């Protein structure tokens, strides 16, 4: 099975509101990958054109291979999951065609939303009987929390990168000093050895 990866740079697709669509060849696989924080709601909606005698499956998993959502023979539907840890997640669509059939390409539409974009605030407002202003304040509160979490994660990454740079600099400095000491010791040994050799040959006094 031929595998293609559509890596989403800078979270353009996952963090956007527009759906994406592509044409999928028979017996191929296409995956969308993204790094997400812990406790993040992800909601996806897909639509696959039907083709006689062939099917498309989807699976959502993390970097360790744990399956978060899966369904075979999809046509149109939705999926949701909540991330448990900070990890890289991927949504894969797999085309399967029997060997005796000649497959055709299928159009796949996918719309993925994360965080506050994935929440159904209308349903939340109806359940909690919130006024429009209260519902908007709730949405802004969630947005503020998401921004704070993003800044916290960025600060943590900055600290990790700084620690890594400092550790690397210390190791490079230690290796440089060690190399210089080894070279100086080797040069000293070589001079003393040649001096003893020349004295033994009575070339020098």
Structure overview:
A five-stranded mixed β-sheet has the order 1-3-8-5-6, with no helix packed on it. A four-stranded antiparallel β-sheet has the order 2-9-4-7, with no helix packed on it. Helix 1 (121-128) packs across helix 2 (132-200). It has a domain at 2-118: Jelly Rolls, CATH 2.60.120.380. It has helices at residues 121-128, 132-200, and strands at 2-7, 20-24, 28-36, 41-48, 55-62, 67-71, 76-82, 87-96, 106-114. The chain is an alpha+beta fold.
Write the layout of secondary structure elements.
Blueprint: E1 2-7, E2 20-24, E3 28-36, E4 41-48, E5 55-62, E6 67-71, E7 76-82, E8 87-96, E9 106-114, H1 121-128, H2 132-200
Parallel strand pairs: 1-3
Antiparallel strand pairs: 2-9, 3-8, 4-7, 4-9, 5-6, 5-8
The name of the CATH architecture of one domain is Sandwich
Q: Estimate the helix proportion, in percent.
A: 25-40%
Beta percentage is 25-35%
* Spatial separation of the terminal alpha carbons: 79 Å
Largest sheet: 5 strands, mixed
CATH first level of one domain: Mainly Beta
Strand line-up across the major sheet: 1-3-8-5-6
């Amino acid at each position: 099975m031929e595998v293609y990866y559509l890596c989403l740079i800078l979270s353009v697709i996952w963090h956007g509101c527009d759906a994406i669509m592509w044409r999928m060849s028979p017996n191929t696989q296409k995956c969308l990958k993204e790094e997400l924080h812990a406790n993040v709601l992800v909601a996806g909606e897909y639509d696959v054109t039907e083709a006689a005698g062939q099917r498309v499956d989807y699976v959502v998993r993390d970097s360790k291979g744990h399956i978060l959502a899966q369904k075979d023979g999809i046509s149109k539907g939705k999926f949701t999951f909540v991330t448990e840890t900070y990890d890289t997640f991927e949504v894969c669509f797999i085309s399967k065609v029997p060997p005796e059939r000649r497959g055709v390409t299928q159009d796949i539409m996918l719309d993925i939303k994360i965080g506050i974009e994935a929440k159904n605030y209308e349903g939340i407002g109806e359940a909690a009987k919130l006024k429009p202003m209260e519902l908007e304040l709730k949405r802004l509160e969630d947005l503020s929390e998401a921004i704070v979490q993003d800044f916290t994660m960025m600060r943590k990454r900055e600290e990790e990168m700084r620690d890594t740079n400092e550790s690397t600099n210390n190791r490079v400095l230690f290796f440089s000093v060690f190399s210089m000491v080894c070279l100086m010791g080797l040069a000293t040994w070589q001079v003393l050895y040649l001096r003893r050799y020349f004295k033994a040959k009575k070339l020098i006094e």
